């Protein structure tokens, strides 16, 4: 039985892809893709299984739309983006319901994500008007040196299932503000949020072909986006494994790339931390989206003097969390995305317990709810030998490592190939600066567990990726710098 989310505007729930202003149902890569609600396992509907042919058509449509879109003034593009941000806000409840139905996160979190999406689009509407060039003092008397910034051209964007709306917002907002056109491929498990964006882009008056949205065969779509010479940039959020593969493919035609990949975020609690604040921050840094966020804490590093108190408080707060269907009032943790995600959390728990970990709470599939629901889990006495020390769990597992001093905390925190987000709690100002400067990460939260905002740059170092999204820096990746030398003056 098909169970669409109850919407005020059912037309936002689309089962077709958007190519050059046409909604099409082509499925050249195989049978349409079934989309299920991860909370109930029920079928929400099907979407087209597009392949290389549809991708090539979408790229051609984006390329055809590019000259007129780049010719618009920044203020005209800003008008479209502002209208889009307003439409997202006006339809927030429906967009949040679609998001919860396909992704599982609690409705309050889905509303937050949709609100953040509107904020990104609004931000880029404003920022697009400030793409300034430079005039550089010339080393020649009779020449002038001008620097201008041009849109790169057609952008290929591939987005993940954990933030089906805001990951589109960061990419589409920046691309359109810069004057680029875009082909978007959302995750197959969460395509409906993306397709709803297509409806709203049309309503915002964004011309046909500027935004194209494809659902379908990831490898085929990825292969076409990364090899087609009309595409000038690839932007991706997802696993490090796929990101590396796409970067390799894109290198063959020297496309620009932005890669927002996996993390292994440490959350350090020093003895001098404000314990209430640290536990509060830990809960959001660990359990937002059921732990399925690339900036979610993967490892808690706790100093020995505060270890037992922190462990006891975190376990108590974790045990009190209401797990359930995201549509249910009061639920703070929904299901994981699928059985594979549940199995990975189970593996990490079994490995940790086999290597001496001590279970403080949780540890199992949710006893009452079953399916993809998992108990918030805290494990003490974690060690670097455990899988959880190295691999991203992407689920509601909080392992607690113990450290003696600041140097050891920094060493443990940096002992990973990832470098996306990290957090630490201290009341010592000197330590706040020392540790923040020593941490090899793109994002640092000091006494804060949730730091994402459209005004700050989001992105990692090391194998967590390249490029930044959001903020004034988030537009740079969609621009080429041009040096113009005016001679004979
Ligand atoms: N940085 C982050 O925010 C995210 C990190 N992850 C990490 O990755 C792990 C696995 O999650 P998973 O969903 O498999 O992530 P993937 O990296 O496989 O998926 C992300 C996106 O890439 C697409 N994709 C997958 N393979 C290819 C390919 N060969 N060419 C082009 N596009 C491709 C997916 O499409 P399709 O859905 O059709 O397969 C989806 O749109 C998670 O457990 C987590 O550790 C996952 C998601 C987000
Ligand atoms: O998991 C991600 O890739 C993005 C996280 C966005 C956020 O922090 O809201």
From TrEMBL:
SUPFAM superfamilies for the chain: ALDH-like
Pfam families: Aldedh (PF00171)
Entry keyword Ubl conjugation: no
GO MF annotation terms: glutarate-semialdehyde dehydrogenase (NADP+) activity; succinate-semialdehyde dehydrogenase (NAD+) activity; succinate-semialdehyde dehydrogenase (NADP+) activity
Keywords: Oxidoreductase
Domain Aldehyde dehydrogenase: 23-484
PROSITE patterns hit by this protein: ALDEHYDE_DEHYDR_CYS, ALDEHYDE_DEHYDR_GLU
Gene3D superfamilies per record: Aldehyde Dehydrogenase, Chain A, domain 1, Aldehyde Dehydrogenase, Chain A, domain 2
Similarity comment text for this entry: Belongs to the aldehyde dehydrogenase family.
Name of protein: Succinate-semialdehyde dehydrogenase/glutarate-semialdehyde dehydrogenase
Lineage, uppermost ranks: Bacteria, Pseudomonadati, Pseudomonadota, Alphaproteobacteria, Hyphomicrobiales
